[in-house]
Specification:
- The two termini are about 15 Å apart.
- The N terminus is likely disordered.
- The protein is of the alpha/beta class.
- Helix content is about 25%, strand content about 20%.
- An eight-stranded mixed sheet has the order 12-11-8-6-7-14-15-23, sandwiched between helices. A seven-stranded mixed sheet has the order 5-4-17-16-18-19-20, with helices on both faces. A four-stranded antiparallel sheet has the order 21-22-24-25, with no helix packed on it.
- Bound molecules: 5'-O-[(S)-ethoxy(hydroxy)phosphoryl]adenosine.
Amino acid sequence: MAPAPAQTAEKESKTDLSEAEIAVHWKEEELFEPNPKFIGQANLTDPGVNERFSLEHFPECFREYGDLLSWDKYWTTTLDTSNAPFYKWFLGGKLNACYNCVDRHLDQYGNKAAIIFVPEPEDEEPTSITYNELYARVNEFAAFLRDFAGLKTGDRVTIHMPMVAELPVTMLACARLGVIHSVVFGGFSGEAAGRRAADSQSRIIITMDGYYRNGKLIDHLASCDIACDTAKSEGQVVDKVLIWQRHPGKVSSSKPLVSGRDVLIHDAIKPYRGKLVPPVSMPAEAPLFLMYTSGTTGRPKGCQHSTAGYLAYAAGTSKYIQDIHPTDVYWCLADIGWITGHTYIVYGPLALAGTSVIYEGVPTFPDAFRPWKISERLGVTILHTAPTAIRQLRKLAPDGPKNFRTKYKTMTTVGEPIEPAAWIWYYKVVGKGVASVTDTWWQTETGGILCTTKPAIDKMKPGSAGPGAPGIHPVVIDENGNEIPAGSNKAGNICIRNPWPGLMQTIWGDADRFKRQYFAKYNKNPNSKDWRDWPYFAGDGATLAADGYFRILGRIDDVINVAGHRLGTKEIESACLTVSEVAEAAVVPVVDEVKGRVPEVYVALKPGIQPSKAIEDKVVHAIESEIGKIARPSAVRIVPDMPKTRSGKIMRRILASISNTMDVGDITTLANPDVVEQIRQQVQGKGKVAMKTAPSDIKDFGGKQE
Ligand code: WTA
């Protein structure tokens, strides 16, 4: 574990960042109108939605979302704030999430595809799973989980799986039983999965033997032994590992099975084939799942999402913002192991009886035409991806989409700020100038979209996420707690004034941290039961233009957004410190043309140890095994010492400036100013520093602590 962050954080206000400074990178762009043909078929075309979802009608406006679900027992209280900010939505109601995503569609849509699985290898055919088929698979797997694995309502299960159809089957089977699933991104290492399994006290891990990625069959099973060992070292015994097979009947892994613990589902499920399990009627506020995410401290935190509030919000935003109809073929390229995949591959689309495409591999395999080929073949009408993928596909084949008969009606981007040039390419070349583009800003904690344009109503503005989604009332607040007015050209912290049904309930096992991290900053009265006193603090910098559109500037904490994946620098630093030669580590973001940001690592060695390539390699290896390949640094710099304040705090901001060839600013107050020039020469060579205008997340990096 990394040492606790010093409380003497040298705070640097972000509120002095003017729109003019930002405009150096991104100038205000022209506005684009939604296409009339799209408007003609859209779910949300009534501009009265703004009034319907105004604060005046809060919280009852969210009945509209609650009413998208089927209830065993209708709720009595739409929002209970008696223990603010631990809110309860749709209190008194009972329902089952799996029933809402599967059973209720059988009469009308039983023969329609719920899921289309597209394997990465092109010689393997896509497979469609109808709602009838999904019902059968989910039921038998639920029977297996209950009767073979002994899982009961309220238990937690860690799911460490790739992008295959068995993943939503697994999640929905858990939801059917009221078992709380915790899906860990398949690309995370065994250690990372094991730590999450321990935190959630999972005694069962569900995994898959292998999967295809970038043309290779990855041996995924090897990581489950490590996960079990890591969980055990943290006090949690995993007594069963349930293993799906990428090629049923054949093991795609060289790892020997551990007898008594490892179970091949394909064989063990046989007695449960065709079994039906009644969906367990769950209280509205029962947790549906945990999703771990990175924050300011070393340990990832388990965001706990509710059954009714989350599902209602997923369904409502999928209907109004993603514009999903049962007739759509909807393809979100995110991974189900992240929140985007939970809400906008699994729960939202399936709650609306949509058809959701699950693609196993990378968008550039075997070439940068793959997304357009898949879209043409399957008739994809809605595309949802991240700026990283857009930048990469554009770079590799800028005219690629022109050769395909794709017919998107609307397209989404999520995960990072998208620069106007990439936005315009997405709109004009991918969407052929007819598809709406929604730039959706939200977070793991928020369950669903917070800022976005309404695709058939609002004008689109490249580079801006847009106004609050229906019923979401964002505000930009400065460091002193004052609201920054629209159009004032000042940046501040984006907050949401009001609660909404998709907001996480708490951090698993750490209610204090939930309160502290998301609400303490601007709360005026800790005893208040009035939601107005508890603005939600998102941890992103933003500006608000005169037209009410929010522009998200990026994280204001120690989180780096790598290709849309949220990584905690403290987690990466902890991994570096597992290398015995390393005394201190600091991780900073570096601007990358395709991935947005990549981590760069600075380490100082213990006394008497000489720098070597072998130590650099050990650091990279430690990061890959503690977290996963996605956290691989662009460089490891072994430095003589870290730049430090007199109170001993490592000045990551200075290192970030050096890595990004920016001016390091005033360093005279440091305890060791000389080391800065030494490090600068080591990283940049002897030449003069090239001055660049800094993106705000880099300029202020490490300036704030939890
Ligand atoms: C960033 C992903 C700019 C932001 C849904 C946020 C964005 C973090 C956007 C959450 C966007 C997400 N424009 N930045 N449209 N969407 N972000 O939890 O910094 O993986 O706080 O949730 O991604 O990442 P997370």
